Amino acid sequence: MLVNYEYCSGCHTCEVGCKERFDLPTGEFGIKLSQNGPWQHGADDWEWNFVPIPTHYCDFCKDRLAAGKKALCEKQCQSFVIKVGPLDELLKEMKTTKRCVLYNTTNDGDTPKALF
């Protein structure tokens, strides 16, 4: 999963799609939007970063990908900042993306982990 957080608007639609997929209770998430900031850089210059982070529930929608569909978080994303796919393709795209984070599963195959 590659997240280009430079353009994430913080809309939470990725959370909603994943929450519905797993029928998660209140307070539980498959992908959770994290907010960093705001930081003031000048009189009228502010910075916020929103970064969707997969949790232990996330399996990168392997069943949907196997059926030729997009992961729900990617499908729901209104800013088109989430991409789920083969690691080699995401690494290529990462080279042209300014602010991003790449997630993959750990060796146990279950737990998402930030790579970069």
Structure description:
The chain is of the alpha+beta class and 116 residues long. It has a single domain, classed as Alpha-Beta Plaits. It has a four-stranded antiparallel sheet. Strand 5 and strand 6 form a beta hairpin. The longest helix has 10 residues. It is globular and about 50 Å long.
What CATH first level would be assigned? Alpha Beta
| Terminal Cα span | 11 Å
Beta-strand residue fraction: 25-35%
Poorly predicted runs: none
Number of separate strands? 6
**Mind describing the biggest β-sheet?**
4 strands, antiparallel
Indicate the CATH architecture.
2-Layer Sandwich
Number of helices: 4
- Oligomeric state of shown chains: single chain
Specify the helix fraction band: 10-25%
**SSE order:** EHEEHHEHEE
Instruction: Name the overall outline.
Output: globular
What structural class results from the helix and strand content?
Answer: alpha+beta
CATH topology description:
Alpha-Beta Plaits
Mean pLDDT: 88
- Count of the separate structural domains: 1
Integer-rounded radius of gyration: 15 Å
Strand order of the largest sheet: 4-1-5-6
At a glance:
This protein is an alpha+beta fold and 116 residues long.
Descriptive tags:
116 residues; alpha+beta; Alpha-Beta Plaits; 4-stranded antiparallel beta sheet; 6 strands; 24% helix
Question: What are the SSEs and their pairings?
Answer:
Layout: E1 2-4, H1 13-22, E2 31-42, E3 45-54, H2 62-66, H3 72-76, E4 82-83, H4 87-94, E5 100-105, E6 112-114
Antiparallel strand pairs: 1-4, 1-5, 2-3, 5-6
